[in-house]
């Protein structure tokens, strides 16, 4: 089991504290923008866009250095700077200064997350990889439960400024665990880049190597593209959940609980999938079926808001749990494919490119969602998002079945071809 390893326990503790801080942050700033400052859909959409922008314009290039640098140093530097950014939120006088700080924090996240992906593969043997991925998703998803509800509760009791100080302390404790982690340079001393074996690689060559590997590995390519489209659909409606909750009569606190129900469902989905191995032979199919199921539920949420007589408020909390569970299984499947299909020496670049593509597709999504919401209403956005998810997942499932893309890992094949 991964948690029996002291190094992974410290690494996992760092993840938990960092993820909790991130979800306090995400929910806190949405509440600040929408409830406290009284700004509308465009402001919330701008916040989400600015946070994702660094993944596109900086992440893929910075990932080359993440693969080169000590992962421990990446964690230490990014966590230290995040503490300063969070404390700076306190004195942000308006949305423009706040968005500048959010952009900086996004840069730090675009460095931290690829380093996290690489560290998982370095610390964990292949036989326990799926459980380590499930634990990582558990960290992310459990904080979706604790973070939003805790954020809403803390704001109601002690206010925004004190809650931000608590968030900074969470990152400080995460930093202490990062300082205690011993991370070897690589899991297998024989696993290194073929390019590095022959010469000192140039920056542009290493960047091209990451893109080339993704294009050659059709299973990985299809997984990354599908996940990016999934993120586009999620962010089409995600920033509007707060307004949907207002339309159905939920207060600030209950909005936090609604988001927490999504996280609770995601925990359940991640835990259940981590307990079984039947899906490992067809992980891409698992991702696509989860995508299809979430599309159906999103469609029902939008439809239900039109007919409150037949869809009472508690039904939306049930929908939230189901969406969370399906997102949890989808993310575990995606993480497993990413880890299994990619050599550790290239994982920083591959994961950063994947994240960059996800953020690129979702950059326009919040504004499109806000525009449709203004043109029609919030409910229409949910119906459109659900329809897109159903159509895309069905098409990709058909292609995967016909072309047999959901086959065994191609990492070993690539290693062999690269050494010829």
UniProtKB/TrEMBL annotation:
Which GO molecular-function terms appear in the entry? transmembrane transporter activity
* Keyword Coiled coil carried by entry: no
The record's keywords, sorted A to Z, are: Cell membrane, Membrane, Transmembrane, Transmembrane helix, Transport
Task: Give compartment(s).
Answer: Cell membrane
Q: List the membrane topology term(s).
A: Multi-pass membrane protein
Tell me the InterPro entries matching this sequence: MFS (IPR011701), MFS_dom (IPR020846), MFS_trans_sf (IPR036259)
Q: Where are the transmembrane segments?
A: 20-38, 44-67, 79-104, 153-181, 220-241, 253-274, 286-307, 313-337, 357-376, 382-400
Say yes or no: keyword Membrane present. yes
This protein's GO cellular component annotations are: plasma membrane
Major facilitator superfamily (MFS) profile domain: residues covered: 1-404
Coarse class of the protein's main subcellular location:
membrane
SUPFAM superfamilies in alphabetical order: MFS general substrate transporter (SSF103473)
Q: Mind telling me what this protein is named?
A: Major facilitator superfamily (MFS) profile domain-containing protein
Q: Which organism is it from?
A: Virgibacillus pantothenticus
């Amino acid at each position: 089991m991964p948690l029996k390893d002291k190094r992974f326990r410290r690494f996992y503790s760092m993840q938990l504290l960092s993820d909790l801080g991130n979800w306090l942050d995400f929910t806190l700033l949405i509440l600040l923008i929408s409830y406290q400052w009284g700004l509308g859909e465009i402001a919330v959409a701008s916040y989400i866009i600015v946070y994702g922008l660094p993944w596109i314009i900086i992440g893929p290039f910075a990932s080359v250095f993440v693969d080169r640098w000590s992962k421990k140093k990446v964690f230490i530097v990014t966590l230290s700077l995040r503490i300063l950014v969070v404390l700076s939120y306190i004195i942000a006088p308006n949305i423009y200064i706040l968005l500048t700080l959010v952009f900086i924090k996004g840069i730090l996240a675009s460095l931290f997350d690829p380093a996290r992906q690489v560290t998982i593969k370095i610390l964990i043997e292949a036989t326990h990889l799926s459980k380590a991925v499930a634990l990582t998703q558990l960290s992310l998803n459990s904080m979706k439960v604790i973070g939003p509800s805790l954020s809403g509760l803390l704001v109601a009791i002690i206010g925004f400024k004190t809650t931000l100080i608590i968030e900074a302390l969470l990152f400080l404790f995460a930093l202490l665990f990062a300082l205690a982690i011993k991370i070897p340079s690589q899991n297998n001393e024989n696993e290194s880049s073929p390019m590095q074996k022959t010469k000192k690689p140039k920056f542009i060559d290493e960047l091209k190597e990451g893109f080339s590997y993704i294009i050659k590995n059709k299973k990985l390519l299809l997984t990354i593209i599908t996940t990016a489209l999934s993120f586009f659909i999620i962010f089409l409606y995600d920033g509007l959940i707060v307004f949907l909750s207002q339309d159905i009569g939920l207060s600030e606190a209950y909005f936090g609980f609604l988001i927490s129900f999504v996280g609770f469902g995601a925990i359940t989905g991640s835990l259940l999938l981590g307990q079984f191995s039947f899906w490992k032979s067809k992980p891409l199919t698992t991702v696509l079926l989860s995508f299809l199921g979430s599309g159906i539920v999103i469609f029902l949420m939008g439809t239900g808001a039109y007919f409150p007589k037949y869809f009472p408020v508690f039904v939306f909390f049930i929908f939230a749990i189901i969406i969370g569970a399906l997102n949890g299984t989808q993310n575990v499947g995606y993480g497993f494919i990413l880890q299994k299909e990619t050599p550790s020496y290239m994982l920083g670049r591959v994961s950063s490119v994947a994240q960059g593509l996800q953020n690129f597709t979702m950059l326009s999504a919040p504004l499109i969602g806000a525009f449709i919401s203004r043109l029609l209403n919030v409910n229409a956005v949910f119906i459109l998002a659900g329809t897109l998810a159903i159509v895309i997942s069905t098409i990709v499932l058909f292609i995967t079945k016909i072309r047999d893309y959901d086959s065994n890992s191609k990492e070993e094949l690539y290693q062999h071809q690269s050494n010829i």
